[in-house]
């Protein structure tokens, strides 16, 4: 993990007793790849001339000058695991079953993941999550949109130690860009939507964006229409799966009224 303290980027190396700062200027960016076999085993290589237990590692290495992170990952797979790939999707095309991809919750990586999703869906894959639709992703229509999820977590002790040393918060939500694909189509889920965006509070109303089997659309509830049957709306976060009934279609999207209901999907 790296942080910026003053003008110099630093890394914090965790040992058994304390955090030791390292100057990142001495290091170069790295990539690492985790390979899972269908049996659940994980690929590890053993480094020569390195004492145990630090001599076992995933395929990994530094990013060369002028090289992108994906290009570096493909090169490291070739050099360290004898896996030849023409492009990042080539590995996915060899797989069966369910594939889970997780990227940082950044616009560049998130949109690249959605573009890869659309390519693979055209080749016969099906989206299981976070998407509920099997058509091209509507978020790609705007250069400002991408899809992320977030979850609460309980930080392990070493992470709290790291947060204390850097002045960061250890109790924040974890945000990421996920994609789950399968060779088999998912079962239909009527009236079910995925929350893909939560707008800042507005005067007299709240707005979220939903993605369903057919469309991506805003869902609005006026404060005066809050009822027990739709109170789940108050706590919605990106990535939540919900079932929606009785919503009206208005000019600004779907509207939760007094008779509408919204529950966990």
Which H/E pattern describes the elements?
EEEEEEEHHEHEEHEEEEEEEE
Strand order of the largest sheet: 16-17-14-13-12-15-18
How many independent structural domains?
3
The best one-word shape is globular
Radius of gyration: 22 Å
* Average residue-wise pLDDT: 83
Number of strands: 18
Oligomer: single chain
pLDDT < 50 runs, ≥5 residues:
1-14
SS class: alpha+beta
Measured distance between first and last alpha carbons: 35 Å
Helix content: 10-25%
Strand fraction: 25-35%
The biggest beta sheet is recorded as: 7 strands, mixed
Total helices: the number is 4
Any key phrases for this structure?
265 residues, alpha+beta, 7-stranded mixed β-sheet, 18 strands
Q: TL;DR?
A:
By secondary structure, this protein is α+β, with helices and mostly antiparallel strands.
Overall description:
The chain is an alpha+beta fold and 265 residues long. It folds into 3 domains: 1-85, Nucleoside Triphosphate Pyrophosphohydrolase (Alpha-Beta Complex); 96-187, no CATH class; 192-264, OB fold (Dihydrolipoamide Acetyltransferase, E2P), CATH 2.40.50. The protein has helices at 69-81, 88-93, 107-122, 157-166; strands spanning 2-5, 8-14, 19-23, 30-32, 45-46, 56-57, 60-62, 98-104, 126-129, 149-151, 174-182, 192-198, 205-211, 216-222, 241-245, 248-250, 253-256, 261-264. It has a 7-stranded mixed sheet with strand order 16-17-14-13-12-15-18, with no helix packed on it. Strands 8, 9, 10 and 11 form a 4-stranded antiparallel sheet that branches. Strands 1-2-3 form a 3-stranded antiparallel sheet. The longest helix has 16 residues, at 107-122.
């Amino acid at each position: 993990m790296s942080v910026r303290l003053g003008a110099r980027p630093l890394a914090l190396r965790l040992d058994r007793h304390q955090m030791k700062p390292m100057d990142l200027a001495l290091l170069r960016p790295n990539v690492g790849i985790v390979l899972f076999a269908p049996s659940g085993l994980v690929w590890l290589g053993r480094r020569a001339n390195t004492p145990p237990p630090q001599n076992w590692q995933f395929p990994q290495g530094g990013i060369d000058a002028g090289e992108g992170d994906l290009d570096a990952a493909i090169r490291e797979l070739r050099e360290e695991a004898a896996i030849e790939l023409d492009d990042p999707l080539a590995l996915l095309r060899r797989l069966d079953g369910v594939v889970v991809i997780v990227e940082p919750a950044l616009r560049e990586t998130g949109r690249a993941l959605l573009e890869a999703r659309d390519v693979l869906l055209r080749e016969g894959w099906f989206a299981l999550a976070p998407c509920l639709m099997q058509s091209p992703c509507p978020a790609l229509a705007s250069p400002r949109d991408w899809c992320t999820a977030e979850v609460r977590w309980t930080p392990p002790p070493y992470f709290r130690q790291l947060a204390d040393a850097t002045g960061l918060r250890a109790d924040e939500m974890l945000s990421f860009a996920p994609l789950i694909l399968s060779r088999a189509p998912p079962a239909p889920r009527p009236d079910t939507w995925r929350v893909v965006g939560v707008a800042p509070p507005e005067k007299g109303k709240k707005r979220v964006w939903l993605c369903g089997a057919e469309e991506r659309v805003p869902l609005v509830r006026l404060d005066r229409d809050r009822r027990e049957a739709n109170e789940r709306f108050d706590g919605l976060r990106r990535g939540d799966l919900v079932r929606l009934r009785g919503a009206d279609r208005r000019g600004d999207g779907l509207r939760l009224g007094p008779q509408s209901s919204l529950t966990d999907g």
